[in-house]
Design goal:
Layout: H1 5-13, H2 18-36, E1 62-63, H3 76-103, H4 111-137, E2 147-148, H5 153-157, H6 162-190, H7 194-225, H8 229-240, H9 251-256, H10 261-264
Parallel strand pairs: 1-2
Helix pairs in contact: 1-2, 1-3, 2-4, 3-4, 4-7, 6-7, 6-8
The chain binds fe (ii) ion (2 copies).
Pfam family, one: DUF455
């Protein structure tokens, strides 16, 4: 029986351990790109039945966002907590990208759609490993601290809505990453931790691509339905994303990723722009 891409995605989603999940994710990505380059038999996309929630390791303990202790980033413990939160985001991102591949196989999409999300999943896997290496270099590890339980909510809410998923995950959550990463890089630069700075710089550079994939495929699907992308974006973010977007925005990087200001400013905290 030929293995399909959506089956491969489900295998990643159902692997609990972080390092095992990311190793499998990278192997599957390499297999997909070898097939796409004609160096191996083609891999059909197929359809699959992904779990509503991905498998997770026993640690970290997942807490309600308000119960996750806040630590000052100026202290060594605070920097470890910050990196731990980043590792958790990267692991969720690995699953989010495989989930969009696994869940919407019944919607016909150009092969480039799968190329983009498989590449993004591969990069998130690398990011998780880089951040874990940094944590271990500082004497900690992923799982040593509690983490956010809410991270998968965006995925569950949009399990039946591919455009909602694109609007909320790459175009809101990953775009937020572009806003906050430069400040994080500064924290680790001041602490004289060049390895962490280098890891975060890799992440920062590659995340622009993920937001751009979101914007590209969101616009593609709007075109298919003859819908106005900006209006549809506002409608979907208001439906699926609780709360307002937080300025300041990284307008330069958002622009590089194909996200224009009139998409996000009307959804911002304190905005009185109404349609
Ligand atoms: Fe990432
Ligand atoms: Fe990403």
């Amino acid at each position: 029986m030929t293995r399909t891409l959506t089956q491969m995605a489900v295998e990643v989603l159902t692997t609990a351990d972080g390092r095992e999940k990311t190793a499998l994710s990278r192997r599957h990505a390499a297999a997909w790109f070898a097939a796409r380059a004609g160096r191996a038999d083609p891999i059909p996309v197929g359809t699959a039945d992904p779990p509503l929630r991905p498998a997770r390791p026993a640690k970290p303990e997942l807490l309600n966002p308000r119960d996750v202790p806040k630590r000052k980033p100026g202290s060594p413990a605070g920097r470890i907590a910050l990196l731990h939160a980043v590792a958790h985001i990267e692991l969720n991102a690995v699953d989010l990208h495989w989930d969009i591949v696994a869940r919407f196989g019944h919607i016909p999409m150009p092969a480039g759609f799968y190329d983009d999300w498989v590449k993004a999943a591969d990069e998130e896997s690398k990011h998780f490993n880089l951040v874990c290496d940094c944590l271990e270099g500082l004497g900690s590890h992923y799982g040593a601290l509690p983490a956010h339980a809410g991270m998968w909510r965006a995925a569950e809410g949009t399990a039946d809505d591919i455009m909602g998923r694109l609007a909320v995950v790459p175009m809101v959550l990953e775009a937020r990453g572009l806003d906050v990463t430069p400040g994080m890089i500064e924290i680790f630069r001041k602490a004289d931790l060049p390895d962490v700075v280098a890891a975060l710089e890799v992440i920062y550079a590659e995340e622009v691509g993920h937001v751009a994939y979101g914007s590209k495929w969101f616009n593609f699907l709007c075109g298919r339905e003859n819908a106005d992308p900006k209006e549809r974006f506002h409608e979907l973010v208001r439906r699926y994303f609780k709360g307002a977007l937080k300025p300041p925005f990284n307008e330069a990087k958002r622009a590089e990723a194909g996200l224009p200001p009139d998409f996000y400013w009307p959804l911002a905290e304190g905005s009185n722009i109404r349609e």
